[in-house]
Amino acid sequence: MLKLGEYQVLNILRETEPGLYLGNSEQDEVLLPHRYKPETFEIGDEVNAFVYLDYDERPVATTLTPYLTLNTFGYLHCADVNEYGAFMDWGVQKQLFVPFKEQARPMKVGNWYIVYLYLDEQTQRLVGSSKTNKYLSNENLAIDKFEEVDILVTHLTEKGANAIVNGKHHGLIYEADIFEDIRTGDRMKAYVKKIRNDNKIDLVLQHPGYRSIEPNANYVLDELKAAGGFLPLHDKSDPETIKNELGLSKKSFKKAIGSLYKDKQILIKEDGIELLASD
């Protein structure tokens, strides 16, 4: 049986006017349109294809890379909204439908949303949902303290960055543990700092088994040395000036110089930062 919303290895059965027909060991067939066929091929070759439904609700294969697959989350751009719901760009030709009942809040054209891809059992169609919480649970955690995990940042709050952990759980990177610019939709590696009694997951971006060093501190230190030991930038400098001079946000810059100051490597003055002589 062909699996909608998933990659599968299929064999080339024959070439026709609309494209290549691919098949599996169960005698299921699906069309791979000519625009996606390999430059060179022979009948019987294997093709790793993604299968979804075309505009006529027929299974079709593609070698394009979708932004999410069945039962996973992605950060998608809303391309259109009509009386039935929203339509998202998800990396393949036909847009992904998100009905109004599956929208956490009304979607607007041009905005980006965290979306979960599922197969509707009644219609057997691939559908998106921005009501992501119902697809996550911290009841039975499949992770341990200090473990490396994959995260998708879902939204930022005053507490920090909320994230989906390994596509299954809720997690949070506290503001005090964020030493770089991160945004909604970012995918990255993280580490489990702590699992609380209520199964809430605290995350960090640096391995908790080592001393966390502010990642931009060394960069600022190098820039200081290159400038002869002084930079006319400080914690009250204009954000645009900091960005133009160092390519850092003011938040990242302040954390970097704060780290250097605590390590007694710099002096923060009214007109800038000064490198202290090492012992």
TrEMBL record:
- According to the entry, every stretch annotated as the Conserved virulence factor B first S1 domain falls at 4-63
Signal sequence region: none
The UniProt entry, under InterPro entries, shows:
CvfB_fam, CvfB_S1_st, CvfB_WH, NA-bd_OB-fold, WH-like_DNA-bd_sf
Q: Coiled-coil ranges per the record?
A: none
> Per the database record, which ranges form the Conserved virulence factor B-like winged helix domain?
220-275
Gene3D superfamilies in the record, alphabetically? Nucleic acid-binding proteins (2.40.50.140), Winged helix-like DNA-binding domain superfamily/Winged helix DNA-binding domain (1.10.10.10)
Which family is this sequence assigned to? Belongs to the CvfB family.
Record's protein name: GntR family transcriptional regulator
Organism, as annotated: Rasiella rasia
